[in-house]
Amino acid sequence: xxxxxxxxxxxxxxxxxxxxxxxxxxxxxxxxxxxxxxxxxxxxxxxxxxxxxxxxxxxxxxxxxxxxxxxxxxxxxxxxxxxxxxxxxxxxxxxxxxxxxxxxxxxxxxxxxxxxxxxxxxxxxxxxxxxxxxxxxxxxxxxxxxxxxxxxxxxxxxxxxxxxxxxxxxxxxxxxxxxxxxxxxxxxxxxxxxxxxxxxxxxxxxxxxxxxxxxxxxxxxxxxxxxxxxxxxxxxxxxxxxxxxxxxxxxxxxxxxxxxxxxxxxxxxxxxxxxxxxxxxxxxxx
Length: 286
What we know:
GO molecular function: isomerase activity
Protein name: Xylose isomerase-likeTIM barrel domain-containing protein
CATH topology: TIM Barrel
Largest sheet: 8 strands, parallel
Keywords: Isomerase
Oligomer: single chain
Structural class: alpha/beta
Number of helices: 12
Shape: globular
Distance between the termini: 28 Å
Domain Xylose isomerase-like TIM barrel: 42-257
Pfam families: AP_endonuc_2
Strand order of the largest sheet: 1-2-3-4-5-6-7-8
C-alpha cells in the first residue's frame, strides 16, 4: 500500500469541478485526491466512464485514494432524524465499492458509522467489519475507520476499540482534528495507539465549542476553519501525533460555506499557508 504524504480531501473544494480539484491538488503539491461515490456517479451520469475518470487524475500525476464515504457494511446503518437528509448522498454507489475502487486504482476506503449514536456496540459491528476487511483484502484495499461526533461511533476511542477487536492488518484508523475535539479529547488513548495504525491525519480548526443553536452537522459541514483561525488546540494535538509517529500522511479537511463561494486561487490563499505552517510546526516539535 502506497503512502501518500499529502492528500487533498474533496471537502475543501467541493464546489469546484473534478478537473479543478485535480489541478488544485497538483498546484499545491498533493500526492493524491480522495473521491466520493456520489461524485463518481455524477461524473458517470455526465458521460464520463470509470476509465476516463481515472485517466483525468493519472494524466496530471495525481493518484485517487480513499473512496469516501463507504456505508452499508453493517445492518441498520441508515441515519435517522435530521441526519436522514444525508441518506441520498450516503447511498450513492451503494454496492459498487470495490467496482469503483478497482477501476479507479483506489487502495483505501473510508468506512463510517452513520447510524444513530449508541445504536450499535463494538461487539455488534466487529463481525461485519471483519467480513468487510476480508473482502477488501481480495481487492488489495485497506479499510480505514473514522469516528464522527454526530452519529454512530462518536469518539476516537470507539474506532480504536473496533480496530483492536478485528485485528486485521488491513484495518486502519483515520484521525480528524475537528472530530477529535468535538467528540472529546482522549489524549491518553491517542498516545497509546501504536505507530502504523493511524493511516492519515486530517487537519481542520473550528470554534472552541459548537455554537449555540447550531447542530453538529451544520458546524461540521459548513463552519470549519483553516488551522490557526479557530480555537481548537491544533498545535498540541499535532505535536502529540508527531511524537507517536502518526504524522506521516496529512491533509486539510475544511468544510466551509465560505470556501464554497471562493475560486480555487482564493481557497489556496486562505488554506494552504495555514495548513503548511501547522504541519511544519508539528514536525519540528520534539
